[in-house]
Design a protein that fits this description.
Blueprint (H helix, E strand, L loop, with lengths): L6 E4 L10 E2 L12 E6 L4 E7 L2 E5 L5 E8 L2 E4 L4 E4 L4 E4 L5 E5 L4 E7 L10 E4 L6 E3 L14 E9 L4 E8 L2 E7 L4 E7 L1 E5 L5 E5 L3 E4 L4 E6 L3 E7 L1
Antiparallel strand pairs: 1-20, 2-3, 3-4, 4-11, 5-10, 6-9, 6-11, 7-8, 7-10, 9-12, 13-14, 14-15, 15-22, 16-21, 17-20, 17-22, 18-19, 18-21
């Protein structure tokens, strides 16, 4: 199912951004009945949306999965905490988590899941605070910048060194860079700002505040942001 281009998954107003295939990620997928898959790679990375009511309990959650809520409410409960997620809120479900899930009938969330067993079994829920304190991080490579280097910051809320999976919050001052192959799979959800990604054939994909998008590994794209940007990210 790999799609060679970046894509919007869900919009700020709570609507799906496309007509995605209804499919489970496996026989053990707790969201299989309501999952819509926009991208599924041979390397275990999947992205798309989940839409509709869910109520179930899972003894060992089978994937590492990040969700960002676009409509309704989603309740996640492990043995230590209950997360009540509303619109614009995000969390990571660790592989192996004993989990109770309850989602309202009007719920919709964007997801990025990693299915390979190279991912560590790290049971538990990790909330992603949109305004977590950030630390300075590297700017894009100087060779692809089309102007001054931006000031970038990040915070990895979830990290798995075995699979090179990083999930957290990033921000940046405005900048532009020329097209280059994307170095990772990336789910991005804009907390603030606006970004235009220029893809092959000069096709432009604009990601606005509140939108969720997915960029597959290796997809050539350029980045242009004229305002401050803050985002949730999942990179693998």
């Amino acid at each position: 199912m790999p799609n060679p281009n970046a894509m919007l998954l869900a919009r700020a107003d709570g609507r799906p951004a496309g007509d995605f295939a209804h499919a489970a990620l496996g026989l053990d997928d707790p969201f299989g009945a309501v999952r819509q898959v926009a991208y599924r790679g041979d390397d275990g990375v999947s992205a798309g949306i989940v839409q509709g009511a869910v109520e179930c309990a899972v003894e060992h959650y089978p994937y590492v999965e990040t969700l960002v809520v676009h409509a309704g409410r989603v309740s996640l409960q492990d043995q230590h905490q209950v997360l009540q997620l509303g619109v614009g809120e995000s969390a990571v479900i660790g592989r192996g988590t004993a989990l109770r899930i309850q989602a309202s009938a009007d719920s919709l969330w964007a997801f990025c899941a990693y299915q390979q067993h190279s991912a560590a079994a790290k049971p538990g829920l990790t909330p992603l605070p949109a305004y977590a304190p950030l630390n300075p991080s590297l700017a894009p490579d100087e060779q692809i910048l089309l102007g001054p280097a931006p000031q970038c910051r990040s915070h990895n809320a979830y990290a798995d060194t075995a699979s090179n999976l990083l999930i957290g919050v990033w921000d940046s001052t405005p900048y532009a860079r020329r097209s280059s192959p994307h170095k990772v799979h990336e789910l991005m959800h804009l907390i603030e700002g606006r970004v235009t990604l220029t893809l092959e054939g000069d096709m432009q994909l604009t990601v606005d505040t509140g939108d969720s998008a997915f960029v597959p590994l290796g997809v050539p794209c350029a980045w242009t942001s004229s305002v401050y940007v803050r985002k949730f990210y999942v990179v693998k």
